[in-house]
Amino acid sequence: QVPPGRCSLFDPAFSAQEAAALGQLGLRLLPDNEEGKHGVEGSATLFYMVHCGKALYNNLLWRNWSPAALSKMVIIGNSFQGIEERLLSRILERDYSYIAKVLKGTEEVALPAHPRYLDTFNDTSVHWFPLQKLKELSPEVWDFAEEPTYQDCDDLEIIRKEDGADRRSPTAAES
Question: What residues does each domain of the chain span?
Fold first, then answer.
């Protein structure tokens, strides 16, 4: 069992009331919108990221871009295989290069679809990154670790921190 104080949460859409309720449950709310760029900091970490945009997964992989860090992660979220199947390979490699580069180092198991709600959570998988599989990737995969920018991305599904998306923190104009 993981103590609630070791569970960190963030959603830029949390209302003040939701944030207060989660805090009363003893859960730790991350203070800033990290845009998915959260490091595992050497600890085994489960990321529950259901229905998130591709950029969030890509940012998370970038932030933890080493075999040692990735092997400590488990992601419950949209299927990476599904992302690969639905995107043109040139778009995947240009806009979501960390997803593209780690596909061969990923183990993925789809969660079963609920027969009553076939269109909900129908693309959810559990992903993990076995150290041995990551070590089998070519060394060049690990050489390039530039932060993603998404300048040419047409379908960016992310709430950027510079968009003032952290609704729990009033801006200077609101104070």
Answer: 44-142
